[in-house]
Write a structure and sequence with these properties.
Number of helices: 11
Distance between the termini: 35 Å
Helix content: 40-55%
Number of domains: 3
Strand content: 15-25%
Number of strands: 12
Largest sheet: 10 strands, mixed
CATH topology of the largest domain: D-Maltodextrin-Binding Protein, domain 2
CATH class of the largest domain: Alpha Beta
Shape: elongated
Length: 302
């Protein structure tokens, strides 16, 4: 016997209200029916989920431990129902993507265009947020998939590498260094550097890799968005360390770009998804498009 959606909803209602009577009213069922449903779930799981008293009830130790998993199961079922209704009414369901603002502006539009051509009725939600917010959106289920920089930290999310993005230096064309063909990281120690905020994953990745090679950048300006970084460069306030993925924005501002090396440093972009949630059909198609969209692929990581 398996837990039913009615049992999951009954458990969550009682856990939320702390009272069988109020939970029964919320679910529009009798209290005796609710009690029987909870009892069946407890029998199925082999443990008591609530500690009952005359004043109400509260989660038992086992109930509190199981609440996140049971809530996720109920959420997954609600998503299945919503997707089924979408497929029945418009044919192709919905997809929510979380990505940093730069990728939302420069990388995603052509992919979404092709995806929409394949699935004309698809509803797409794009969460264009700071990169550090992407994992939490995927983890909570607000986004089906996310795009972020691969991290050395252990993650509860599945990371699928799809693109290797090189770091570059961006500067005005009248800057003395603009006549060079390339730069070394050591050459930046005397330059005012414009970069991301400390908590930005790209900044953490770059600083960590430079520290391994014995280098550290002295950031004169720390900002949240790449558009601001490029704007500060245009005004001659310093040089920015960005990545090749932002080349369209850099070219639009008519700025110079130099490769930077010794050591050569690149970041790996990954597609994020939950471990225990299979991708919906639209998400699977988006994944296929994303994996084939970039000229340089990162090696797969097991």
């Amino acid at each position: 016997m398996k837990a039913s959606i009615d049992q999951l909803q009954a458990f969550l209602a009682v856990a939320d209200t702390g009272h069988f009577t109020r939970a029964a009213e919320r679910l529009a069922i009798s209290q005796s029916s609710l009690s029987a449903t909870i009892h069946k779930l407890e029998e199925l799981l082999g443990t008591r989920l609530f500690d009952r008293s005359t004043r109400g009830c509260r989660l038992s130790e086992a109930g509190a431990a199981l609440q996140p998993s049971l809530a996720r199961l109920a959420q997954d079922w609600q998503r299945v129902v919503a997707d089924a209704k979408d497929f029945a009414s418009i044919g192709h369901g919905r997809l929510a993507i979380a990505a940093p603002s730069a990728q939302c502006a420069l990388m995603l539009p052509p992919l979404i265009n092709e995806l929409s051509a394949r699935l004309p009725g698809l509803r797409v939600t794009v969460h264009d947020v700071a990169e550090q917010e992407v994992p939490s959106l995927v983890r909570s289920g607000a986004a089906d998939v996310g795009i972020a920089t691969q991290s050395a930290r252990r993650s509860d999310l599945v990371e699928t590498p799809f693109y290797t993005d090189q770091y570059i230096v961006v500067l005005r064309r009248d800057h003395p260094l603009a006549t060079r063909k390339s730069l070394e990281w050591a050459r930046l120690k005397d330059e005012p550097v414009i970069g991301p905020m400390v908590n930005n994953p790209v900044r953490r990745h770059l600083d960590m890799r430079l520290a391994e090679a014995g280098y550290a950048l002295d950031y004169s300006y720390e900002v949240s968005l790449p558009w601001t970084m490029v704007g500060l460069v245009r005004e001659g306030l310093g040089i920015a360390v960005l990545t090749v993925a932002l080349r369209p924005l850099i070219d639009w501002y008519k700025l110079a770009v130099l490769p930077v090396g010794r050591p050569a440093i690149a970041r790996t972009m990954v597609l994020l998804r939950q471990q225990d949630r299979p991708l919906s059909p639209p998400a699977q198609i988006f994944r296929q498009l994303l994996m084939g969209s970039s000229p340089k692929r990162a090696p797969a990581r097991t």
